Amino acid sequence: MTDDRPGPGARQRYLSGERGQTLQDYTIGISLFIITVSAVLAGLLGFTSPLSAGVSSEDISQSQRITTAMVQNLSTGRQPNELDAVRLNTTLNRSVEQLRSRWGLESTTSLNVTLSTLNGTRIVERDGVKLTVGSRYTNRSTATASRVVTLDDETCDPSCRLVVRTW
Fold it and tell me: 144, 94 in Cβ contact below 8 A?
């Protein structure tokens, strides 16, 4: 008959490192768990990203092209980025369809052109009319291009921000 009770040296064997799991085993196990969870989360996020609408490079180039065209075509030529207020007002009083046609945009492209204060807190008004045209911008993903401009009638003192958004 054998005695299965731990003897006086059992505690000594337990503390000496003869146990089943070592610190290295624990570290490797936790590391594999973290890597696995990270890979699963990255896969899920990669799977759902095509469902979110982003801004295409085409939209970005369109908005930049429109701001450049507006500054070049409406410029007075006296100072850099000084726009003719009458021609700007005429441009912003056109319909969105006319502006899309003028700038070569597709009919599915939404457009917003706004002349705002430098800090963007309000839209600039000229003769009681807000200088904005296009679809209403509602904090969505848009391609935005802006230029700091002045108007020749000193409506923008010292200057304003011409903002073009496409989406």
Answer: no
Structure tokens at 117: 């204060």
pLDDT in tens, 6-45: 555 555 555 555 666 788 888 999 999 999 999 988 887 7
**Shared-domain flag, residues 145 and 66:** yes
Q: Report yes or no: 66 and 147 within 8 Å, Cβ to Cβ.
A: no
Q: Does 123 lie in the same domain as 153? A: yes
Query: Could you tell me if 94 and 133 are in contact, meaning their C-beta atoms sit under 8 angstroms apart?
Result: yes
Structure tokens at 32: 């594999």
Same domain, 33 and 101: no
Written as six digits, the tokens of 98 are 């006319």
How far, in Å, CA of 71 to CA of 63, rounded?
Answer: 12
Instruction: Report CA-CA distances (Å) from 148 to 8, 56, 84.
Output: 86, 24, 14
Q: How many helices (H) and strands (E) does the chain have?
A: 5, 7
Of the candidates 96, 128, 130, 105, the one whose C-alpha atom is nearest the C-alpha of residue 116 is: 130
Other C-beta atoms lying within 10 Å of the C-beta of residue 152: 18
- The whole-angstrom separation of Cα 71 and Cα 60 is 17
Judge contact between 67 and 164, C-beta under 8 A: yes
Q: Supply the mean pLDDT for the chain.
A: 80
